[in-house]
Protein backbone atom coordinates (compact mmCIF):
# COMPACT_ATOMS: atom_id res chain seq x y z
CA UNK A 1 0.00 0.00 0.00
CA UNK A 2 1.29 3.46 -0.80
CA UNK A 3 -1.00 5.25 1.62
CA UNK A 4 -3.28 6.60 -1.13
CA UNK A 5 -6.73 5.07 -1.52
CA UNK A 6 -7.34 3.51 -4.92
CA UNK A 7 -10.87 3.64 -6.34
CA UNK A 8 -12.57 2.86 -9.60
CA UNK A 9 -14.28 5.54 -11.64
CA UNK A 10 -17.76 5.93 -10.13
CA UNK A 11 -20.68 4.82 -12.26
CA UNK A 12 -24.01 6.53 -12.75
CA UNK A 13 -25.63 4.12 -10.26
CA UNK A 14 -23.13 5.07 -7.54
CA UNK A 15 -23.42 8.85 -7.59
CA UNK A 16 -26.23 11.37 -7.12
CA UNK A 17 -27.86 12.13 -10.43
CA UNK A 18 -30.24 14.73 -11.75
CA UNK A 19 -33.91 14.51 -10.86
CA UNK A 20 -34.78 13.61 -14.45
CA UNK A 21 -32.45 10.61 -14.57
CA UNK A 22 -33.75 9.22 -11.27
CA UNK A 23 -37.23 8.88 -12.77
CA UNK A 24 -38.44 5.89 -14.77
CA UNK A 25 -36.81 5.97 -18.24
CA UNK A 26 -38.67 8.10 -20.70
CA UNK A 27 -38.22 9.67 -24.14
CA UNK A 28 -40.18 11.26 -26.97
CA UNK A 29 -40.56 10.68 -30.69
CA UNK A 30 -40.96 13.78 -32.87
CA UNK A 31 -40.57 12.74 -36.48
CA UNK A 32 -42.54 15.83 -37.55
CA UNK A 33 -41.66 19.14 -35.93
CA UNK A 34 -44.24 20.08 -33.31
CA UNK A 35 -45.86 16.64 -33.26
CA UNK A 36 -44.19 15.24 -30.16
CA UNK A 37 -45.30 11.81 -28.98
CA UNK A 38 -44.25 10.64 -25.47
CA UNK A 39 -42.81 7.14 -25.66
CA UNK A 40 -43.05 4.82 -22.67
CA UNK A 41 -40.23 2.29 -22.97
CA UNK A 42 -40.70 -1.40 -22.13
CA UNK A 43 -39.65 -2.75 -18.72
CA UNK A 44 -36.23 -3.88 -19.96
CA UNK A 45 -35.24 -0.24 -20.51
CA UNK A 46 -33.57 0.72 -17.22
CA UNK A 47 -31.14 3.56 -16.43
CA UNK A 48 -29.59 1.72 -13.49
CA UNK A 49 -28.97 -1.50 -15.38
CA UNK A 50 -27.10 0.19 -18.23
CA UNK A 51 -24.59 1.35 -15.58
CA UNK A 52 -23.04 4.23 -17.48
CA UNK A 53 -19.93 5.93 -16.06
CA UNK A 54 -20.55 9.37 -14.59
CA UNK A 55 -18.56 11.07 -17.34
CA UNK A 56 -20.65 9.34 -19.99
CA UNK A 57 -23.84 10.63 -18.37
CA UNK A 58 -22.41 14.16 -18.36
CA UNK A 59 -21.54 13.95 -22.06
CA UNK A 60 -25.00 12.65 -22.90
CA UNK A 61 -26.65 15.42 -20.90
CA UNK A 62 -24.53 18.07 -22.59
CA UNK A 63 -24.69 16.88 -26.20
CA UNK A 64 -27.10 14.07 -26.97
CA UNK A 65 -30.12 13.90 -24.64
CA UNK A 66 -33.06 15.75 -26.14
CA UNK A 67 -34.18 18.88 -24.33
CA UNK A 68 -37.29 21.03 -24.37
CA UNK A 69 -37.23 24.73 -25.21
CA UNK A 70 -36.80 25.58 -21.53
CA UNK A 71 -33.75 23.31 -21.27
CA UNK A 72 -35.43 20.51 -19.33
CA UNK A 73 -34.58 16.98 -20.37
CA UNK A 74 -37.01 15.14 -22.61
CA UNK A 75 -35.37 11.76 -22.04
CA UNK A 76 -33.07 9.77 -19.80
CA UNK A 77 -29.95 7.96 -21.10
CA UNK A 78 -31.78 4.63 -21.29
CA UNK A 79 -34.70 6.40 -22.91
CA UNK A 80 -32.34 7.86 -25.50
CA UNK A 81 -31.02 4.41 -26.37
CA UNK A 82 -34.57 3.15 -26.72
CA UNK A 83 -35.45 6.12 -28.96
CA UNK A 84 -32.65 5.08 -31.32
CA UNK A 85 -33.60 1.41 -31.22
CA UNK A 86 -37.31 2.14 -31.70
CA UNK A 87 -36.67 4.46 -34.65
CA UNK A 88 -34.26 2.10 -36.41
CA UNK A 89 -36.63 -0.86 -35.94
CA UNK A 90 -39.54 0.83 -37.73
CA UNK A 91 -38.15 -0.21 -41.11
CA UNK A 92 -39.02 -3.81 -40.18
CA UNK A 93 -42.67 -2.95 -40.89
CA UNK A 94 -41.83 -2.95 -44.59
CA UNK A 95 -40.88 -6.63 -44.30
CA UNK A 96 -43.73 -7.76 -42.01
CA UNK A 97 -41.20 -8.32 -39.26
CA UNK A 98 -41.46 -7.77 -35.50
CA UNK A 99 -40.38 -4.18 -34.82
CA UNK A 100 -40.33 -4.54 -31.03
CA UNK A 101 -38.14 -7.63 -31.20
CA UNK A 102 -35.67 -5.82 -33.43
CA UNK A 103 -35.79 -2.76 -31.18
CA UNK A 104 -34.80 -5.00 -28.25
CA UNK A 105 -31.89 -6.45 -30.23
CA UNK A 106 -30.58 -3.01 -31.14
CA UNK A 107 -31.17 -1.63 -27.65
CA UNK A 108 -29.12 -4.47 -26.16
CA UNK A 109 -26.27 -3.81 -28.61
CA UNK A 110 -26.22 -0.17 -27.56
CA UNK A 111 -26.54 -0.55 -23.80
CA UNK A 112 -24.06 -3.44 -23.63
CA UNK A 113 -21.68 -1.09 -25.47
CA UNK A 114 -21.05 -3.60 -28.24
CA UNK A 115 -22.06 -1.18 -31.00
CA UNK A 116 -22.54 2.57 -31.24
CA UNK A 117 -23.76 4.33 -34.39
CA UNK A 118 -22.50 7.71 -35.53
CA UNK A 119 -23.41 10.98 -33.82
CA UNK A 120 -26.15 11.98 -36.31
CA UNK A 121 -28.04 8.81 -35.39
CA UNK A 122 -28.06 9.91 -31.75
CA UNK A 123 -29.24 13.41 -32.65
CA UNK A 124 -31.47 12.54 -35.61
CA UNK A 125 -33.32 9.32 -34.79
CA UNK A 126 -36.93 10.04 -33.85
CA UNK A 127 -36.44 13.79 -34.27
CA UNK A 128 -37.52 16.31 -36.92
CA UNK A 129 -33.99 16.22 -38.33
CA UNK A 130 -34.44 12.61 -39.41
CA UNK A 131 -30.91 12.53 -40.81
CA UNK A 132 -28.85 9.53 -39.71
CA UNK A 133 -25.94 9.67 -42.16
CA UNK A 134 -22.63 11.26 -41.17
CA UNK A 135 -20.55 11.34 -44.34
CA UNK A 136 -21.19 13.13 -47.62
CA UNK A 137 -19.16 14.09 -50.70
CA UNK A 138 -20.69 16.89 -52.74
CA UNK A 139 -19.75 17.93 -56.30
CA UNK A 140 -18.83 21.53 -57.13
CA UNK A 141 -19.19 22.63 -60.75
CA UNK A 142 -17.49 25.67 -62.25
CA UNK A 143 -20.67 27.72 -61.98
CA UNK A 144 -21.82 30.27 -59.40
CA UNK A 145 -25.26 28.71 -58.89
CA UNK A 146 -27.26 28.32 -62.10
CA UNK A 147 -26.77 24.55 -61.99
CA UNK A 148 -27.74 22.25 -59.13
CA UNK A 149 -24.06 21.54 -58.42
CA UNK A 150 -22.87 25.14 -58.77
CA UNK A 151 -20.63 26.72 -56.15
CA UNK A 152 -23.37 28.34 -54.08
CA UNK A 153 -25.98 25.67 -54.81
CA UNK A 154 -23.64 23.11 -53.27
CA UNK A 155 -22.87 25.45 -50.37
CA UNK A 156 -26.58 25.61 -49.56
CA UNK A 157 -26.89 21.81 -49.52
CA UNK A 158 -23.71 21.50 -47.48
CA UNK A 159 -25.00 24.00 -44.92
CA UNK A 160 -28.16 21.95 -44.43
CA UNK A 161 -26.07 18.81 -43.98
CA UNK A 162 -23.92 20.61 -41.41
CA UNK A 163 -27.04 21.73 -39.58
CA UNK A 164 -28.13 18.10 -39.17
CA UNK A 165 -24.73 16.92 -37.93
CA UNK A 166 -23.21 15.53 -41.12
CA UNK A 167 -19.72 16.13 -42.46
CA UNK A 168 -18.87 17.07 -46.04
CA UNK A 169 -16.13 16.38 -48.55
CA UNK A 170 -15.61 18.58 -51.62
CA UNK A 171 -13.42 18.54 -54.69
CA UNK A 172 -12.61 22.08 -55.82
CA UNK A 173 -10.74 20.70 -58.83
CA UNK A 174 -13.35 21.62 -61.45
CA UNK A 175 -13.09 25.34 -60.66
CA UNK A 176 -11.04 27.42 -63.05
CA UNK A 177 -7.80 28.87 -61.65
CA UNK A 178 -7.47 32.22 -59.96
CA UNK A 179 -7.44 35.17 -62.42
CA UNK A 180 -8.69 33.07 -65.31
CA UNK A 181 -11.02 34.97 -67.59
CA UNK A 182 -14.78 34.79 -66.93
CA UNK A 183 -16.38 35.47 -70.30
CA UNK A 184 -19.93 36.10 -69.06
CA UNK A 185 -18.85 39.02 -66.85
CA UNK A 186 -15.49 39.93 -68.47
CA UNK A 187 -14.07 39.54 -64.98
CA UNK A 188 -11.48 37.32 -63.37
CA UNK A 189 -12.04 34.05 -61.53
CA UNK A 190 -11.75 33.82 -57.74
CA UNK A 191 -10.13 30.39 -57.90
CA UNK A 192 -10.54 27.28 -55.71
CA UNK A 193 -8.75 28.64 -52.63
CA UNK A 194 -10.90 31.78 -52.60
CA UNK A 195 -14.09 29.71 -52.61
CA UNK A 196 -12.60 27.31 -50.07
CA UNK A 197 -12.34 30.33 -47.74
CA UNK A 198 -15.94 31.31 -48.52
CA UNK A 199 -17.12 27.82 -47.54
CA UNK A 200 -14.94 27.90 -44.43
CA UNK A 201 -16.45 31.19 -43.28
CA UNK A 202 -19.99 29.94 -43.82
CA UNK A 203 -19.38 26.74 -41.87
CA UNK A 204 -17.76 28.69 -39.06
CA UNK A 205 -20.96 30.68 -38.60
CA UNK A 206 -23.14 27.56 -38.69
CA UNK A 207 -20.95 25.87 -36.08
CA UNK A 208 -21.61 28.66 -33.60
CA UNK A 209 -25.23 27.57 -33.23
CA UNK A 210 -24.65 23.83 -33.05
CA UNK A 211 -23.57 21.41 -30.35
CA UNK A 212 -20.38 20.49 -32.18
CA UNK A 213 -18.35 21.84 -35.05
CA UNK A 214 -19.01 20.17 -38.38
CA UNK A 215 -16.16 18.45 -40.21
CA UNK A 216 -15.18 19.24 -43.80
CA UNK A 217 -12.57 18.03 -46.28
CA UNK A 218 -11.39 20.12 -49.22
CA UNK A 219 -9.57 18.36 -52.06
CA UNK A 220 -7.68 19.78 -55.06
CA UNK A 221 -6.00 17.77 -57.79
CA UNK A 222 -2.22 17.92 -57.99
CA UNK A 223 -2.42 19.06 -61.64
CA UNK A 224 -4.58 22.14 -60.91
CA UNK A 225 -2.80 25.45 -61.61
CA UNK A 226 -3.63 26.73 -58.09
CA UNK A 227 -2.18 23.71 -56.31
CA UNK A 228 0.73 25.60 -54.72
CA UNK A 229 -1.61 28.18 -53.17
CA UNK A 230 -3.79 25.34 -51.95
CA UNK A 231 -0.85 23.51 -50.34
CA UNK A 232 0.08 26.60 -48.32
CA UNK A 233 -3.40 27.96 -47.50
CA UNK A 234 -3.37 26.50 -43.96
CA UNK A 235 0.25 27.35 -43.12
CA UNK A 236 -0.86 29.96 -40.58
CA UNK A 237 -2.60 28.38 -37.59
CA UNK A 238 -6.28 29.24 -37.39
CA UNK A 239 -6.83 29.87 -41.09
CA UNK A 240 -9.39 27.74 -42.95
CA UNK A 241 -10.14 26.33 -39.50
CA UNK A 242 -13.29 24.42 -40.48
CA UNK A 243 -11.56 22.30 -43.12
CA UNK A 244 -8.94 19.65 -43.46
CA UNK A 245 -7.34 19.71 -46.89
CA UNK A 246 -5.87 16.98 -49.07
CA UNK A 247 -4.09 16.94 -52.40
CA UNK A 248 -5.49 14.45 -54.92
CA UNK A 249 -2.30 12.82 -56.22
CA UNK A 250 -2.28 10.99 -59.55
CA UNK A 251 -0.19 8.09 -60.79
CA UNK A 252 1.29 10.38 -63.45
CA UNK A 253 2.53 12.82 -60.81
CA UNK A 254 4.16 10.07 -58.76
CA UNK A 255 5.86 8.76 -61.90
CA UNK A 256 7.27 12.24 -62.53
CA UNK A 257 8.45 12.47 -58.92
CA UNK A 258 10.17 9.11 -59.20
CA UNK A 259 11.85 10.01 -62.49
CA UNK A 260 12.51 13.66 -61.52
CA UNK A 261 10.53 14.93 -64.51
CA UNK A 262 8.61 18.09 -65.21
CA UNK A 263 4.88 18.03 -64.47
CA UNK A 264 2.13 19.99 -66.22
CA UNK A 265 -0.57 21.98 -64.39
CA UNK A 266 -3.70 22.26 -66.52
CA UNK A 267 -6.70 24.58 -66.50
CA UNK A 268 -9.78 22.38 -65.91
CA UNK A 269 -11.84 24.78 -68.02
CA UNK A 270 -10.14 23.80 -71.28
CA UNK A 271 -7.40 21.30 -70.41
CA UNK A 272 -4.62 23.62 -71.56
CA UNK A 273 -1.25 23.65 -69.79
CA UNK A 274 -0.93 26.75 -67.62
CA UNK A 275 2.38 26.01 -66.00
CA UNK A 276 5.11 23.39 -65.87
CA UNK A 277 6.81 22.59 -62.54
CA UNK A 278 9.42 20.19 -61.26
CA UNK A 279 7.47 17.31 -59.79
CA UNK A 280 9.92 16.74 -56.94
CA UNK A 281 9.83 20.38 -55.93
CA UNK A 282 6.04 20.28 -55.73
CA UNK A 283 6.17 17.01 -53.81
CA UNK A 284 8.69 18.47 -51.37
CA UNK A 285 6.39 21.43 -50.78
CA UNK A 286 3.60 19.05 -49.77
CA UNK A 287 5.97 17.27 -47.38
CA UNK A 288 7.20 20.57 -45.92
CA UNK A 289 3.76 21.90 -45.05
CA UNK A 290 2.43 18.54 -43.90
CA UNK A 291 5.36 18.39 -41.48
CA UNK A 292 4.69 22.00 -40.43
CA UNK A 293 1.17 21.43 -39.11
CA UNK A 294 -0.31 18.28 -40.64
CA UNK A 295 -1.84 19.98 -43.69
CA UNK A 296 -2.26 19.04 -46.47
CA UNK A 297 -2.94 15.34 -46.45
CA UNK A 298 -2.73 13.22 -49.57
CA UNK A 299 -5.43 11.31 -51.43
CA UNK A 300 -4.10 8.92 -54.07
CA UNK A 301 -7.03 9.44 -56.37
CA UNK A 302 -6.12 7.01 -59.17
CA UNK A 303 -5.53 4.24 -56.62
CA UNK A 304 -8.89 5.07 -55.02
CA UNK A 305 -10.68 4.79 -58.36
CA UNK A 306 -9.10 1.43 -59.07
CA UNK A 307 -10.89 0.23 -55.93
CA UNK A 308 -14.11 2.15 -56.60
CA UNK A 309 -16.91 -0.41 -56.02
CA UNK A 310 -19.39 1.55 -58.19
CA UNK A 311 -17.40 2.96 -61.17
CA UNK A 312 -20.56 2.78 -63.31
CA UNK A 313 -22.17 5.40 -61.05
CA UNK A 314 -19.39 7.95 -60.60
CA UNK A 315 -15.67 8.59 -60.54
CA UNK A 316 -14.22 9.35 -57.12
CA UNK A 317 -12.96 12.94 -56.78
CA UNK A 318 -12.80 13.52 -53.05
CA UNK A 319 -13.38 11.94 -49.67
CA UNK A 320 -15.33 12.93 -46.59
CA UNK A 321 -13.39 14.00 -43.47
Overall, the morphology is elongated
Q: How far apart are the termini?
A: 48 Å
* Residue runs with pLDDT of under 50 for 5 or more positions: 1-22
| SS element count, helices | 12
Q: How do you describe this structure in short?
A:
The chain is built from twelve helices and eleven strands. The protein has helices spanning 19-22, 47-50, 54-64, 77-89, 99-111, 119-124, 151-163, 192-207, 227-232, 251-259, 279-293, 301-306, and strands at residues 27-29, 37-39, 135-138, 167-171, 181-182, 187-188, 216-221, 244-249, 262-266, 273-278, 297-300.
Question: What are the SSEs and their pairings?
Answer:
Elements: H1 19-22, E1 27-29, E2 37-39, H2 47-50, H3 54-64, H4 77-89, H5 99-111, H6 119-124, E3 135-138, H7 151-163, E4 167-171, E5 181-182, E6 187-188, H8 192-207, E7 216-221, H9 227-232, E8 244-249, H10 251-259, E9 262-266, E10 273-278, H11 279-293, E11 297-300, H12 301-306
Parallel strand pairs: 3-4, 4-7, 7-8, 8-11
Antiparallel strand pairs: 1-2, 5-6, 9-10
Helix pairs in contact: 4-5, 7-8
Task: Explain how this protein is built.
The chain is an alpha/beta fold and 321 residues long. It folds into two domains: 12-124, no CATH class; 135-306, no CATH class. The protein has helices spanning 19-22, 47-50, 54-64, 77-89, 99-111, 119-124, 151-163, 192-207, 227-232, 251-259, 279-293, 301-306; strands at residues 27-29, 37-39, 135-138, 167-171, 181-182, 187-188, 216-221, 244-249, 262-266, 273-278, 297-300. The strands form four sheets. A five-stranded parallel β-sheet has the order 3-4-7-8-11. A two-stranded antiparallel ribbon has the order 1-2. Helix 7 links the parallel strand 3 (135-138) and strand 4 (167-171). Helix 4 crosses helix 5 and helix 7 runs parallel beside helix 8 (192-207). The protein is elongated, with a radius of gyration of 25 Å. The relative contact order is 0.09. Residues 1-22 have low confidence and may be disordered.
Amino acid sequence: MNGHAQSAVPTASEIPRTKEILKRPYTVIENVKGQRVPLTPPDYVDDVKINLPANAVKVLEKRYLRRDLDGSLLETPAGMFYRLAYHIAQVEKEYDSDTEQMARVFYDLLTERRFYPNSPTFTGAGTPLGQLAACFVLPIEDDMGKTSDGIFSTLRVAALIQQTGGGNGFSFSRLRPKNDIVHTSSGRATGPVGFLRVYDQAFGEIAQGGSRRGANMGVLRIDHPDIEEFITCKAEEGTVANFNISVAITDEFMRCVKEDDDFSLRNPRDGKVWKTVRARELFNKIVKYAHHNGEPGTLFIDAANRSNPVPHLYELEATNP
